[in-house]
Amino acid sequence: MLSCFKSYDVRGKLGEELNTDIAYKIGRGFAVAMTPGTVVIGYDVRPTSPELAEALTRGLRDEGVDVIDIGLCGTEEVYFATTHLKAGGGLMVTASHNPIDYNGIKMVREGSRPISAADGLGDISILCEHDAFGDVKAQGSYTKQDPRDAYADRVVSFVDLSALKPMKIVVNAGNGVAGPTFDVIADKLAKAGAPFEFIRHNHDPDGGFPNGIPNPLLPENRSQTADRVIAEGAALGVAWDGDFDRCFFFDETGAFVDGEYVVGLLASAFLPKYPGAKIIHDPRVVWALLDLVADGDGEAVVSQSGHSHIKAKMREVDAVYGGEMSAHHYFRDFMYCDSGMIPWLLVAEHMCRTGRTLSDLVADMQARFPSSGEINFKLADKQPAIDAFEATYTAHAKDVDRLDGVSLDMGEWRVNLRQSNTEPVLRLNVETKGDRDLLKAKVDEISALITGA
């Protein structure tokens, strides 16, 4: 198998794992495996993205597929356009938050449904690896379209504009592709009378990433947004990754809000609007969310981590919202897809409705159910660490769940240990019932066990 094919998408080091020749084959492979008829293509700001998109376009057209090029955009704009333009598939050239010498391709089928290794992506990989294509077919057509205005209308439709109150918000696009799309959304908000003031930071797309690769999940990348929030006296800070399918939050003190609490916030924003609604969550950190959903008379439904699993579960139970602590947030009324633009609008609306600061909204969750945040261990051989963990704790657990890795309910504390779907690491999450000393003790104890195995 070509090394650029991962569980959910294509990603690889330029020149070694991914180039225009491979991209051309992926275009043909997608056409053969998916028989899409028409495909939407978009690309991010990286210097190699337009040429990879052009190679994909050639491959698709050589298999008789019509291509609609929507140009520089975010991943969710491809998701939207695929359904909005009634295309049979969508391809987004992006490396998101990966290093500068990487690029990749995210793919969806008709209806913006995900493609995974077990559901189409593996077939494309085999076709590419064996160069299993016949003669070039009659050329498919090529057109350019710009559905951004319709996309922005959809995003803005998620909030009640009459509920919005004056608020100063710092937005950090990280020199990725969020800036131009945000401007269209902000313009619609302004024309509708929304009293928001936006402070733009690193706003212009720049594939050289002069301020670093946009990945606010890394602690070392957070100070740019946090410092600007404090300097401007803003009520809220928002930062995006490179293709803005993830967004990250900072409260009025500049403090970063961990992803599991953002999931709780968004659940709280939805449940008053949709009484009894189903909320999807991953199994890594759950207690704060379960408590909020129960209080809101909703129904929490667990799903295996990863976008294809979350989206499938959402469709299965018709959930209004699904969230992962990794900052992916999914919405029924956005084709069950993830968006990085809808969450900040919903959080801002929730702040306006409640009259509470962001720090106040998350303080109770943090106090009642403190968590470790995700701790990653790079190990040459992960199995001995997993075996040692299970031998130490499983027999003493009140409940054992193996939906995604192993989750153990130990009574006053809970732990999830899982292997990453996309990286060679072991991921640890620990939470407790209001006991920060116990949290630290268990994190130290399990970390020592993993690293010493």
Structure report:
The protein has 453 residues and is α/β, with parallel strands linked by helices. Helices cover 36% and strands 22% of the residues. It contains 14 helices and 21 strands. It has helices at residues 20-34, 49-62, 75-84, 121-129, 148-156, 178-191, 223-232, 259-270, 287-295, 307-317, 342-354, 358-368, 383-393, 436-452; strands at 10-13, 38-43, 66-72, 89-93, 102-109, 142-144, 167-172, 196-201, 236-240, 247-250, 256-257, 278-281, 299-302, 321-323, 329-331, 337-338, 375-378, 399-401, 406-409, 413-419, 425-432. The protein has a six-stranded mixed beta sheet, sandwiched between helices. The chain has a five-stranded mixed beta sheet with strand order 8-7-9-10-11, sandwiched between helices. Strand 2, helix 2 and strand 3 form a beta-alpha-beta unit.
Fraction in beta strands: 15-25%
Query: Mind telling me the C-alpha Rg?
Result: 22 Å
Beta strand count: 21
Strand order of the largest sheet: 1-5-4-2-3-6
Overall 3D form:
globular
Q: Could you tell me the mean pLDDT?
A: 96
First and last CA, distance: 31 Å
* Helix share, percent: 25-40%
